[in-house]
Amino acid sequence: MLRTNRAAVLSLAAFLAASSSSALRVRAAPTAAFALVRPFAAAREVSPPPPTTAVSMSGSDEVDKAIAASAPSGDDDPPTIFDKIVSGDIPSTKVYEDDTVLAFRDVSPQAPTHVLVIPKARDGLTQLSKAREDQEGLLGHLLYVAQEVGKKECPNGFRLVINDGKDGAQSVYHLHIHVLGGRQMGWPPG
To answer: Coiled-coil regions in this chain (predicted)?
Structure first.
């Protein structure tokens, strides 16, 4: 038997009421969505959500930065902050470095441990979705380094995050992996 809960109903309601605006207004949709899942809620009585709920699409400075960054196309673009960290123009607290990869602490940590793992050379790898077949080895190496950093820094577990594009909240167009840990992570993440 399929069960439902209030969070699932609200998520479905927000999804059904989604529009292209930056702030969604969910009015009649929660009740409509509730009616759609109501037959499956027999295992537990669930009350419909309140008639008006505001949902913000932004919610963080990082999302606002991602919207403003609007995807540069590649290596001809000006150097990113990560290029400047690799070159030494901007200082960083290095956690790991080899010939192709650099890992350093994020200056605006979102968890007790927040390390960024980047390729030293962008080589067109501004987003994960822009990866080429010949970069498969580098992508594997980035993930391997990220898990090594995660195991060392967060022995009780960690999360790896790759933001891709505006909707993925990518604010720096130089592929990077966030290693987050040092506390219990919540779910769902976004």
So the answer is: none
